[in-house]
Amino acid sequence: MIRCKWCNLNNPKYIEYHDNEWCKPNFDDKYLFEMLILESFQAGLSWECILNKREDFRKAYDNFDIEKICNYDKMKIQELLLNEKIIRNRLKINASINNSRIFKKIQNEYGTFHEYLKSFTNDRIVYETGKTTPDIETLIRLSKIFHVDFFDLLSGCNTETGKYVNDSNFKELNDKLDRDDEARFSEANFEAEILLRIRSLDEGKREEAMAFLDDLTDNIYKFRRKSKTREVTAKPVEIPKKEIELLEKADIKYLPPRKPRKKRGRNKKNIFLED
């Protein structure tokens, strides 16, 4: 089995959670309530740390019995604060008790806590992709790069989104990616062809080609400087027709250099005093 990078393979509890619970739908209110309690203690800490203390939390919180937790008093809170096997944070302990009471109210209103959660997604399960697991588009691209069957690659990724991929929507998405790739890389075909040709040349021919390209670009952006006045002037340079034709084939628009602007205003005198 291919496991996510965040899973510590040296921790059996983490492996068990990854393989049997993570990304597995569970609509049982008792399980959801347990996760709510544990998640409230996880804030600012690693999830692995909470999993290591999970059984200690279960004992301290009466097997996550919501009826008992809703009735916790100051004596029970003090008992939890003295329990060295759990996270002894007063704010988190108070929050867990308050959350249990809200959880109970939601159950009374919606029937189950799961029904309440479904109201946010229109009764649809939303799977997270592209964060800890690759999305479908990434898998399609990888299958093309490595010449691997897409569905074989999908089956080895342990992602729930694979359940909703079939031959029909795979073909639709694959064709869309092909069109996008063609549009994205069509502009680079000419540059890629030049690069391949230059790579095929020997060292001497390659230097000649680079010298030709240097001359070509220098003729387009060539300026002459007058060292005495330190004024930059641009002198129009006549480009040979052959070079212009090459530019047109490469879809490069030739723009002749602008004429130098006349300097306006009077020359400022030297304001520095000499000894």
Mean pLDDT figure: 76
| Whole-angstrom Rg | 35 Å
Report the CATH superfamily of the largest domain: Hypothetical protein, domain 2
Count helical runs. Answer: 14
Please state the overall shape, judged from the principal axes of the Cα atoms. elongated
CATH architecture of the largest domain: Orthogonal Bundle
| CATH third-tier fold name of the largest domain | Endonuclease III, domain 1
Strand order of the largest sheet: 1-2
Oligomer: single chain
- What share of residues are in beta strands? under 5%
Task: Briefly say what this structure is.
This protein is an all-alpha fold and 275 residues long. It has helices at 12-20, 29-42, 47-52, 54-60, 66-70, 74-81, 90-110, 113-118, 136-145, 150-155, 167-185, 189-200, 203-220, 241-249, and strands at 224-226, 231-233.
Structure description:
It is a single chain. With 275 residues, the chain is mainly alpha-helical. The protein has 3 domains: 12-118, Endonuclease III, domain 1, CATH 1.10.340.30; 136-200, no CATH class; 219-261, no CATH class. Helices cover 55% and strands 2% of the residues. A two-stranded antiparallel ribbon has the order 1-2. Helix 2 (29-42) packs antiparallel against helix 7. The longest helix has 21 residues, at 90-110. It is elongated and about 95 Å long.
